[in-house]
Design brief:
The chain has 175 residues and is of the alpha/beta class. It contains six helices and five strands, in the order βαβββαβαααα.
Length: 175
């Protein structure tokens, strides 16, 4: 099918502006592993962010900076951590592979790990087989899993709190 240029208005295309984390953060490498199959070739126009402290002393984490930039830019696309519903920003449903079901990007799908681009953070301890874990390390891990510890996770803003089910599973590992 062909059409005369004179019979159609000229279409003006706008560039897509790409936003994301700089390569020092696991969010960037995790995204590269899942989406680009481990490739490190990034868009040379990527607007990358890092944590900063504002003149008023308040922390401005990279995920908030990305969300704010996308909300201001009508031609933006970004990869980011879950930031909830924000004016001017639409989260995209994605599928793990072609033909798979698309999964909405919600707090529930990130926390229950059904959203294909979820990140995970791990704690590792060094315990010699047959010996007990250092009591101070065990108590610290119990604190992290406690309501107070999970409140600190929320306050920090870089990670989501664990679900009650995940906390119960992890506490069993400490017994």
């Amino acid at each position: 099918m062909a059409a005369s240029a004179a019979s159609h208005k000229s279409t003006s295309f706008k560039p897509i502006h790409v936003y994301g984390f700089n390569l020092r953060y696991n969010t960037a490498t995790d995204f590269a592993d899942k989406v680009m199959q481990g490739g490190d070739k990034w868009n040379e126009n990527l607007h990358a962010y890092a944590h900063i402290v504002q003149p008023n002393g308040k922390r401005y984490i990279e995920a908030e900076q990305i969300t704010d930039a996308v909300a201001r830019d009508p031609y933006a696309i970004a990869y980011n951590r879950f930031r909830g519903d924000r004016p001017g920003v639409r989260r995209l449903a994605v599928a793990e592979n072609e033909g798979a079901q698309y999964v909405e990007h919600t707090l529930t799908t990130v926390q229950n790990r059904t959203y294909p681009l979820h990140n995970q953070a791990y704690f590792y301890t060094n315990v010699k087989p047959g010996t007990p874990m250092d009591p101070m390390v065990k108590e610290f891990l119990r604190f992290v899993l406690s309501q107070e510890g999970q409140d600190e996770v929320v306050r920090d803003g870089r990670y989501l709190p664990l679900t009650a089910e995940v906390v119960r599973e992890q506490l069993k590992k400490l017994d």
